Amino acid sequence: MNTADYIKREADEIASRTGRYIPPYRMANLMKTAQKVTDLLARADIAMTYEEIQLVLGIVQGAICKATGRDTQ
Predict the structure, then answer these.
(1) Alpha helices in 19-49 (DSSP H)
(2) Which residues 6+ apart lie within 8 Å of 41 measured at CB?
(3) How far is it, in rounded angstroms, from Cα 8 to Cα 14?
């Protein structure tokens, strides 16, 4: 079995468990973006509490749901 076969098997297994497969290179990009957001929210000049950060993230999530038609309300 070659590397491509192992990757395909892994992707299929993960997708069956989670409903999706995020390849390692894409996961690295997502983690970099998450770090940028975390850094922005935690900057001293903004000085948000965890509750305020959750509020901001909730607003963003709501906008994404609205834009994708997954708004449940």
Answers:
(1) 24-42
(2) 48, 53, 56
(3) 10
* Nearest to 42, CA basis, from 32, 51, 53, 34: 53
**Residue bearing tokens 């309300």:** 73
- Tens of pLDDT, residue by residue over 1-36, are 899 999 999 999 999 999 999 999 999 999 999 999
- Could you give the count of Cα atoms lying within 13 Å of 12 in the half-sphere of its Cβ? 6
The span from the CA of 12 to the CA of 10, in Å, is: 5
- In whole angstroms, what is the distance from residue 72 CA to residue 30 CA? 26
